[in-house]
Design goal:
heterodimer; A: 438 residues; alpha/beta; D-Maltodextrin-Binding Protein, domain 2; 2 domains; 4-stranded mixed β-sheet; 20 helices; 11 strands; B: 298 residues; MetI-like fold
C-alpha cells in the first residue's frame, strides 16, 4: 500500500477530483455528494451463506435497488473461508462493500489502508447510533471505517424449565459463590454444570474474556489484548485460578466438543448452563419453538465487587467498504442506506422460508424493541446492564495472535490446568515475537 | 503305491497349511479393509440421517428416520451445475496441460543426453518439495501486480486460468518425475531406430514415445484429476468471487457460520466425490497397469 492512499480526507479528495482525481481511484474515498442520485452498480461481498442472513441481505439489496436503481452484484462466501482469506481478498479485487466485524478486526485492516473512510456515512446516519457503536466503528486515526448492523451478547444461557425443575432462581445467581453453589447442586444431580467445548479453539476465549473482565476489569482486559499489559502478570494467573474452579463442573470432553457439542448438552437437558453468544438461539428455534421459548440468558456473575457486572462481550457485525473496490462511492452510498432506519427496516422485514420474521437485534437505536421476542428482550437487558462493551477476544486483538496463539494456549491449559505459568510465558513470548504491523 | 499315498498326504498337508495361511492373511486384509472402508460407510450413513435427530439424540443414537432429504437439500443449496462446471473448467485444462508439458520435459531429459539434463530433472522434482502454503503469498502478489500492470485486474487473479496455471506449475514436477522414470524403461533401441529412420524430434515424441506412454499418462491423469479436483486452497486464495470457485468451495455453502450440519455436509461430500470415482472407474484398467508398468526395468 502506498502512503498516498492512506489518510485521504474528504477535502483533499474534493481537491483531487478537481484536478482529475487520477491516482486516487484505487484508494480514495469519493464520498462527497453521494445522496440518492445514482452512484452506479456495485458488488456486495457477503460473509455468510446461511439462509437467514442471505434472506436479510436480499431484502436489503432489493430495497436499495428499488430506491436508487443501482444494480448490486451479490457474492457470498462461507464465513470461515471468507475470514481466513480477507487479507488477500482486500488486496486483490474485492467487492465494493463487504460484511465484516467492528473493533480491532476492522482497525487492523483500516491501518493497512485497505478500507475506505466512511466518515461521510456517519455524518448522515450517525445520530441513529449510540456512542459505543461509533467508537467500535472508528479506526485508530479517528475516522469511521465501519457501519454496524447487529449485535449479540455473550452470557450464561440456561433452560427455564430446568431451573424450575431444580428449584433454582436465575435472579439469585449474581456472584461467584452463588454460581459455584448452583453448579455444585447440579453436579450432585448428575448434571454437567458448565457446558464447554473448545475443539475449535475459539469457544473458550469467551470464558477467558468474561473472567478477566470480572476479575481485573475492562481496562486491564483491553490493555492486555492490545499488548499494553503483560500476559505473565499475576492478574492473568488469577483468571486461570478462577477458571480451574469451573473445571469440576464441566463436561470431561471439552477438547473433543465444538461449541455445538456443548450446545447439544444444554438442548438435551444434560447441562445446566452454558456461556455462549446468544446467536445460537437460532438453533433452538430451528429445533422447536418450545425449545426456543425455554431458552434464557443472564449476565455472567460478579467476581470482583469493584467491577461488578460492568463488562460484556457483545460482538458487532456490520459492513465496510473496500478501498481497492471499483466503486467506493457506490459502496458508501449503499451503506448510507443500509445504516439508515429505512435499510434496517428492509432487513427486519425479511422472512425465512416458512414466512417467519428472522430475529435480529439491530445496532440502530431506531429499532422498536417492543417487537422483540422474550429471549431478545432478555438479551437487551443483559446488554443494558453493561457499561463497557468488548467485541470478543479474537476480534479485540491481532488476528495473527488470537487464532494461532491464544487458541492453542487455552487448549493446552485444558490438557494440563496446572501448567499456568508456562502457558503465560508462552503467550507473552509469542506476543513479543509477532512482527510489527505494517 | 505307498509313495503315491505319501505324496498325496504331503500334498494335503501342504494344502491345509496353505489354507490356514490364506485364512490368516485374509483376516488381516479384512481388518484393514474394514478400517479403510469405515470412514466412507460412516459418511454415507451420516448423510442419510437428519441433523435434527442427531442434535436431539446424539451421534451414536439409533436413528428414527433414514431418508435422502440431505441429498435433495445439498443439491439445491450447492448450486451443483455451476460449481461442477467451475471444477471442470479448472481440472480438465490443468490435467491436460500438466500431462502435455510433463511428458515434453520427461521426453527431453530421458531421451537426450546433454549437460544439464539431470540437473533439469532435479529442478523439476525439487519443485515438489515446496509446500503451497509457503509460496502462495508471492504467487498472489505476482498475480495482482501483473493484473495491475496490464490494467486488467482479473487477468490471472480471480480467474479460472490463474488457478489452472498454478496447478500446472505445481503438478508438473511430479508428472515429469513419473513420466521420465517410465520413459527410461522404454528400450533405447526404439528411439535409435526411429532416429535412424529419420524421425524428427517432434515425430519421435508424438509418434513413437507418446503412444508408448499411454498407461503412464492414464494413471497419472487419474491422480492429477483427483488432486486438482480436490483442491480448495488455491481456489480460495487466488479467487475472490465465490461463484467462480470449484465444487470444494460449494461444500462450504453447506456449512453455516455457526451451525455445521454434518449430516448435510456428508451428503454434499458424497456427491462431490462421485466425479473422481467415475474417472477412476473409467480409467481403472490403465491405472492398474500403469502403476506396475515402469516399476521394473525391462
Amino acid at each position: 500500500m502506498s502512503d498516498t492512499e492512506k489518510g485521504i480526507s474528504r477535502r483533499s479528495v474534493l481537491k483531487g477530483t478537481a484536478v482529475g482525481g487520477i491516482g486516487l481511484a484505487a484508494g480514495g474515498s469519493l464520498l462527497a455528494g453521494c445522496g440518492d442520485k445514482a452512484t452506479g452498480a456495485l458488488a456486495y461481498g457477503a460473509r455468510s451463506v446461511d439462509a437467514g442472513p442471505t434472506a436479510q441481505n436480499e431484502a436489503l439489496i432489493a430495497a436499495y435497488t428499488a430506491k436508487t436503481k443501482n444494480e448490486v452484484k451479490y457474492n457470498a462466501t462461507e464465513s470461515n473461508a471468507f475470514q481466513n482469506n480477507l487479507s488477500q481478498y482486500l488486496q486483490g479485487t474485492p467487492d465494493d462493500t463487504f460484511e465484516w466485524m467492528a473493533g480491532y478486526r476492522m482497525q487492523f485492516f483500516a491501518e493497512q489502508g485497505l478500507l475506505a473512510d466512511l466518515t461521510g456515512v456517519w455524518d448522515a446516519v450517525g445520530d441513529q447510533y449510540s456512542e459505543s457503536y461509533k467508537i467500535a466503528s472508528t479506526g485508530l486515526d479517528g475516522k469511521q471505517y465501519f457501519v454496524p448492523k447487529s449485535w449479540y451478547p455473550w452470557g450464561l444461557h440456561f433452560r427455564k424449565s430446568m431451573f424450575a425443575d431444580l428449584g433454582l432462581n436465575a435472579d439469585n445467581v449474581t456472584n461467584w459463590d452463588e454460581y459455584l453453589k448452583m453448579l455444585d447442586g447440579m453436579k450432585k444431580k448428575g448434571l454437567v454444570g458448565f457446558a464447554a467445548g473448545d475443539k475449535g479453539g475459539w469457544e473458550a476465549m469467551g470464558t477467558f474474556d468474561i473472567l478477566n473482565a470480572r476479575i481485573n476489569g475492562y481496562q486491564f482486559h483491553v490493555d492486555l489484548l492490545a499488548g499494553r499489559e503483560k500476559w505473565t502478570d499475576a492478574k492473568v494467573t488469577e483468571v486461570f485460578t478462577y477458571w480451574s474452579q469451573l473445571i469440576p463442573y464441566m463436561n470431561p470432553n471439552v477438547l473433543d466438543l465444538e461449541w455445538d457439542g456443548a450446545m447439544q448438552l444444554l438442548l438435551q437437558r444434560k447441562a445446566g448452563s452454558m456461556l455462549m453468544g446468544s446467536w445460537f438461539g437460532g438453533n433452538f428455534k430451528e429445533q422447536s419453538e418450545a425449545d426456543y421459548a425455554d431458552l434464557s440468558i443472564i449476565p455472567f456473575p460478579e467476581i470482583n465487587p469493584e467491577h461488578g457486572r460492568d463488562t460484556i462481550d457483545a460482538p458487532i457485525d456490520g459492513w465496510c467498504v473496500a478501498a481497492n473496490g471499483t466503486n467506493n462511492d457506490g459502496g458508501a452510498d449503499f451503506l448510507k442506506f443500509a445504516g439508515d432506519m429505512e435499510g434496517v427496516n428492509a432487513t427486519l422485514a425479511a422472512t425465512d422460508k416458512d414466512g417467519k420474521l428472522i430475529p435480529m437485534t439491530s445496532a440502530n437505536s431506531g429499532q422498536d424493541t417492543a417487537s422483540y421476542d422474550p429471549f431478545q428482550k432478555e438479551q437487551l437487558a443483559v446488554m443494558a446492564e453493561a457499561k463497557y462493551i468488548t467485541q470478543f477476544l479474537d476480534r479485540d486483538t491481532r488476528p495473527d495472535f488470537a487464532g494461532p496463539v491464544v487458541g492453542p494456549a487455552i487448549q493446552s491449559w485444558f490438557k494440563n490446568p496446572k501448567d499456568v505459568a508456562k502457558i503465560q510465558e508462552t503467550l507473552q513470548s509469542q506476543w513479543e515475537a509477532l512482527p510489527p504491523l505494517a | 503305491m505307498s509313495i503315491d499315498v505319501e505324496l498325496q498326504q504331503a500334498a494335503t498337508k501342504y494344502k491345509n497349511k496353505q489354507k490356514v495361511k490364506d485364512r490368516f492373511i485374509s483376516a488381516i486384509i479384512g481388518v484393514f479393509a474394514i478400517i479403510w472402508v469405515f470412514p466412507i460407510v460412516w459418511t454415507v450413513w451420516t448423510s442419510l440421517r437428519p441433523y435434527k435427530d442427531v442434535r436431539a439424540n446424539g451421534v451414536f443414537s439409533i436413528p428414527k428416520t433414514l431418508n435422502l432429504d440431505n441429498y435433495t437439500q445439498a443439491i439445491s443449496r450447492m448450486e451443483l451445475p455451476l460449481y461442477f462446471w467451475n471444477s471442470a473448467a479448472i481440472t480438465i485444462p490443468a490435467v491436460f496441460l500438466t500431462l502435455f508439458f510433463g511428458s515434453l520435459i520427461a521426453f527431453v531429459v530421458s531421451r537426450y543426453s546433454f549437460k544439464w539434463n539431470v540437473s533439469l530433472l532435479l529442478l523439476f522434482t525439487a519443485g515438489n518439495l515446496l509446500p503451497a502454503q509457503l509460496v502462495f503469498i508471492p504467487v498472489f502478489k505476482m498475480y495482482i501486480t501483473l493484473g495491475k500492470a496490464l490494467g486488467i485486474p482479473r487477468i490471472l487473479y480471480d480467474s479460472h486460468w490463474g488457478v489452472v496455471l498454478i496447478h500446472v506449475a505445481f503438478q508438473m514436477g511430479f508428472a515429469t518425475f513419473v513420466l521420465s522414470s517410465y520413459m527410461k524403461t522404454v528400450p533405447k533401441e526404439i528411439s535409435e531406430s526411429a532416429m535412424v529412420d529419420g524421425a524428427s524430434v517432434f515425430v519421435h515424441y508424438s509418434k513413437v514415445m507418446l503412444p508408448l506412454l499411454r498407461p503412464a499418462l492414464a494413471s497419472l491423469g487419474v491422480l492429477m484429476t483427483t488432486w486438482i479436483y480436490n483442491d480448495f486452497f488455491w481456489a480460495l486464495v487466488l479467487m475472490s468471487t465465490d461463484s467462480k470457485r470449484p465444487i470444494t468451495s460449494a461444500l462450504g455453502r453447506l456449512q453455516g457460520e455457526f451451525v455445521t450440519d454434518y449430516n448435510l455436509l456428508a451428503a454434499g461430500a458424497t456427491i462431490a466425490a462421485l466425479p473422481t470415482l467415475i474417472v477412476f472407474f473409467v480409467l481403472r484398467k490403465q491405472f492398474v497397469s500403469g502403476l506396475t508398468l515402469g516399476s521394473t526395468k525391462g
